[in-house]
Specification:
Blueprint lengths: L6 H6 L10 E7 L6 H9 L7 E7 L6 H11 L4 E5 L11 H9 L4 E6 L2 E3 L4 H11 L3 E12 L4 E3 L15 H9 L11 E3 L1 H6 L13 H8 L3 E14 L10 H21 L6 H17 L14 H9 L3 H26 L1
Helix pairs in contact: 6-8, 9-10
């Protein structure tokens, strides 16, 4: 990563009104002392002709993350602004990006990043802002990433090559379905979008109690604007254990899997798109699996085209007399799926 410039050196390249940022960089972090320094450095290596601000929400970290941020704040007081939460906001049902960072952003554009990812392209913001300034019919620009597995120290380069991210002239419907079915991948740390899309789409996470900060945005934005994909690696996504999407606790993992399916079902219904049999099947499986470990959970959507056994299971899963049977059935089914997966890889 390039050497950091001083705050004075960064600001000296800014033209026009230096007090009003064109871009607001929004960073969400929690207990990421091993990673957050690289995230901050990735912002500060940006070479732009316009002013930008760095907005950080530290969600009540209990490690040294706040100390690392404060060190950077001291050296870049006119660029970095941080909210240090006294209680963890996400655990209270607050969406850190949508409810905290986006409302205070002063920029015309917003760039997103999470504390365990970091940017590696110094021209990222300049390229993206130039494109949107010159193309008013587009509202979001994103790019490719490298993945670094922190545990085994392995790299995967240019991961979007296996997805349909080339700049096809997709209709709103096709783009929406590609995102829903994970055929078109949008990497949060590469995203750059017009702030006015938030008002245009009237996004309210609390309506559906969805804490995921990215997928709802992409689905709503896909129905309001065009997306541009830059075929360049812009950032590094670091895979680590016990993150939101990869929790060590298996019950939290099953909850995350269900949230992902609930989100897709909600948005398919919102925009009156047909729910495919594949999504129905995955949702049913995710709901019944999570209910096995949390029988009191009240489902947001009913089972889709459920089999008699699925209906019986959902109705009786909270009864102890049936629980052991359902649990053993789930163990056996999971074992068979693992065997099939291993065979398919050979």
């Amino acid at each position: 990563m390039a050497a950091l410039k001083t705050e004075k050196e960064i600001i000296s390249n800014w033209k026009n009104n230096r007090s009003k940022p064109l871009v607001s960089i929004c960073l969400a972090t929690f207990n990421q002392e091993k990673f957050v320094e690289n995230a901050l450095k990735g912002f500060l290596i940006q070479e732009t002709s316009f002013p930008f601000e760095i907005l950080i929400n530290d969600d009540c970290s209990n490690d040294t993350t706040p100390l690392i941020i404060k060190k950077f704040e001291t050296n870049y007081p006119n660029i970095i602004k941080t909210q240090y939460q006294k209680t963890n906001q996400m655990s209270q049902g607050i969406n850190v990006f949508g409810d905290i960072l986006f409302p205070i952003a002063k920029g015309k554009y917003i760039a997103m990043c999470e504390g365990d990812d970091y940017w590696i392209e110094p021209k990222k913001l300049q390229w993206q802002s130039d494109f949107l300034e010159q193309n008013p019919d587009y509202g979001l620009v994103h790019g490719d990433i490298n993945i670094f597995n922190y545990e085994n120290k392995l790299w995967e380069y240019g991961v979007n090559k296996n997805f349909k991210n080339s700049n096809l002239n997709l209709s709103k419907k096709d783009l929406f379905h590609h995102i829903v079915n994970s055929k078109y991948r949008i990497r949060t740390s590469t995203v750059f979008f017009r702030k006015n899309l938030l008002e245009k789409c009237k996004i309210n996470y609390r309506t559906i109690n969805i804490l995921l900060g990215d997928t709802p945005l992409w689905l709503d934005f896909s129905q309001a604007t065009k997306f541009k994909y830059i075929e360049k690696v812009l950032s590094v996504y670091q895979v680590s254990s016990n993150s939101i999407s990869r929790p060590l606790d298996k019950i939290q993992k099953y909850r995350f899997d269900l949230i992902m399916l609930e989100t897709r079902v909600y948005y398919l219904k919102k925009y009156n798109y047909e729910i495919s049999g594949k999504i129905m099947s995955k949702y049913n499986e995710a709901l019944l699996t999570y209910k096995l470990f949390n029988p009191q959970y009240i489902e947001k959507f009913k089972l889709f085209e459920a089999t008699p056994f699925q209906r019986f299971k959902l109705k009786n899963i909270s009864y102890k007399s049936f629980y052991v049977f359902f649990y053993m059935q789930w163990l056996f089914s999971s074992y068979i799926k693992r065997i099939i997966k291993k065979i398919s890889k050979k």
